[in-house]
Each structure stands twice: as structure tokens, then as C-alpha cells.
Amino acid sequence: xxxxxxxxxxxxxxxxxxxxxxxxxxxxxxxxxxxxxxxxxxxxxxxxxxxxxxxxxxxxxxxxxxxxxxxxxxxxxxxxxxxxxxxxxxxxxxxxxxxxxxxxxxxxxxxxxxxxxxxxxxxxxxxxxxxxxxxxxxxxxxxxxxxxxxxxxxxxxxxxxxxxxxxxxxxxxxxxxxxxxxxxxxxxxxxxxxxxxxxxxxxxxxxxxxxxxxxxxxxxxxxxxxxxxxxxxxxxxxxxxxxxxxxxxxxxxxxxxxxxxxxxxxxxxxxxxxxxxxxxxxxxxxxxxxxxxxxxxxxxxxxxxxxxxxxxxxxxxxxxxxxxxxxxxxxxxxxxxxxxxxxxxxxxxxxxxxxxxxxxxxxxxxxxxxxxxxxxxxxxxxxxxxxxxxxxxxxxxxxxxxxxxxxxxxxxxxxxxxxxxxxxxxxxxxxxxxxxxxxxxxxxx
Length: 445
Description:
Elements: H1 2-17, H2 24-50, H3 57-70, E1 77-79, H4 81-92, E2 94-97, E3 100-105, E4 108-114, H5 119-123, E5 130-134, E6 137-138, H6 144-151, E7 158-164, E8 172-177, E9 179-182, E10 186-191, E11 194-199, H7 206-221, E12 227-231, H8 240-249, E13 255-260, E14 267-271, E15 283-287, H9 294-304, E16 309-312, E17 320-326, E18 332-341, E19 357-358, H10 390-393, H11 407-412, H12 418-430, H13 437-444
Helix pairs in contact: 7-8, 8-9
């Protein structure tokens, strides 16, 4: 590891020498930085020499790197060979495991979202659940990598998960069988004259699959097609280019998203390039507190361009862009390098996407018992550049008088997914000869 250390020091030294006439303030700052680096090296040497057991140098250095990045924000991280391979397999759309997106929070493993049609989703594991034990072994305090490694394994083998669900009277137990997870990011079906497109993630196939969905639904339903529902609920995000591709599918022109980095002039803008494949049909976008990142880009673009009505619950609020920076043949850096903005110049960081129509999931009987964890709840999250209205961030918990029906009453009517049913009925009311979405959205605010 010494060559790496020397390389870093040489780069730093070069930066200092480039300043021909340093100011007193900059010189003092550089001296302070060198003192801190000396302290870091002193700690490294003391640990290596005096710790009760021999410690691998690589383990110590990677621990220091991880600690450095953890002090920045929740989405910056160091990727070793295992992490890099896991990220590639997920963006390619195939990996082994249970089908869970998880994070760590104060030493606890929290479920961000289960992936559709995977062992975790079929068993009923929900966003916001906390995994406390794997095969009866406590995992509290484990690193995220350690927890993920235990959940992955040979397809066909079993694992027992103990889950604490806020509001549940006692821990829940799930016995799951590992599978090869082949993520199908887009599914579609016709519900009457409405095309429903479910997008569960943004991997390399998402854009093309979305265009295929629009084409096949248009052909299947025919001239009586009322419009489309785009379901982005519990979609944790993914690749930026795929979010742009999906948005472009439904837009004729205009900006989709912009990203702005640290420097004032470091701005990139992305625009619609192709025709609206849906032919201008009405669109309703479904989001919830699990809709994050790339999902929020799509929802925000279609909302700001007055192309769609957004309904559901306020989204997660992840408005930052991560860049993958290679550090070697098998390692890299996942670093937050920019914030993204909707076409109207809104940053969704912390506040998320606010729906045009707030629609609770009445058919989920546990919705009021589970915490609605969002970006603003994560430790060291980026602070929004503009102050966020606390009314958007905090839910007063009061029931909406417009939605009084119980899950039992809805079940008797054959409704198992109230939000989706509401979206389909809304598009159906618009009909083939509906007014432009801009007019409809104005009347539903």
C-alpha cells in the first residue's frame, strides 16, 4: 500500500508547488492539512505496531477511506472488487440473492425496497422494515457489506430473516430461498382502456423496455386507448441516462433534467430528442416515499413539463448525482459530484416530488405504523440549497377526510391496490379526447 500513499502525497505536493505566491490564509490551511495527515499516519503506524492482534494494512487503509467518505453524505462510498462487481451486476439486471435493496442506519439494516417478483417481495417484506437477525444471528452493528454477503448465496439455499416492523406487536420471521435475481425493470398490462407501465428500477434495459411497453400497449388497446399510468412506487433509482431515456419517451421537446456541480459553470443539461411515443395521451405518474433518484427525475420532468399528473405520496428526496471514479483495475470511488434539478429549476433534495394529488395507499393496513423514512432522515444527508418547507418534510399524521374507506371495504369491492386503482380510474375519466394534461393538472391542484 506504500506506493498508493506516495502517489497521494506527490499529488498534494504538486498542488502546493503550483501556488507561486500563496496567501497567508492558504499557506496556513495547507500547513494544517499536512499536520492532520501526519496524525493520520501516526495512528496507522501505532495501530499496526501495537494493536493486540496483527492487522492487515489494506484493511486499515480501507477503513480510513470508508470513514472519510462516510463523513460526507450517505451516498458516497469506496468500492472494492466485490462492491464493483455487485454494482455492475445490478445495473446489468441480474444478480444472486433475495431481491432486497438495503441500507444501514445507526448500525441497523433497513429495507429500502424489495424488488418485484423476488423472494423478498413475495414473502411480504416491506420498505421500512429492519432486519435484525440472519439465521438467528444478530447482525446489528455489522457493516452493509457483511449483511449483504450473508443474504447472498447459492440459489436454492435457504435463509431465515428476523424483521422488526414498526407498529407490529412482535418481530416477524421470514424463511426465504435464494434465487438468481433477474431484474425485469419494466412490466406492462392493459387495464381496460388504460395502459399500466410498472418501472421498478433503472438498469441498462429500462429505456428500451419502456418504449416496447408503450408500443405494445398502444397496439393491443387500439384507438380507444385512454392513456397511461407510469408506476414508479418503491423504485430506488439507478442509471441517470435511463431516467432521461424514459422521460424522452413521453416528451416532444424541452429540458428533462440538469445537473450542477461544485463550480459555478459546471452545469449539464439534458433535453428531449425524439417524438412523444405515446402520441400525447394523458399520463398519470404514481410515486411514494420509496420513489428515489432516477424515479424522481422522471416524475419531476413530466410534472414540470405539464405532461403528466403526479399522484401518490411525496417521494424520497434524493437529489444528488454520484459519479463512479475508477481507482484501479478492481476498485473505485462512488462520489457525490452534483445535484440535479427539474426543468423548472427545482431541487428535490430533502423535499422530494410533491404529488399534484396526494393519494394514500388505503389497502395497506400497516401504512400508518411504518415510519416514512426519506433522504432528510439519513445521517449526513446533503442540505437543500434553499430552505425546505417543513410542512412538506413532516407529516402531521391526520387522516385525509377525502379517503375514509377502509381496506376491508375496498377488498369487498375487489380493490387490492387503491393507489393504482385511483390512477387507472383517473386516466379512464380523461378518455381519448381528454384536454391536455396541463389543463387537467391545473384543475386538480
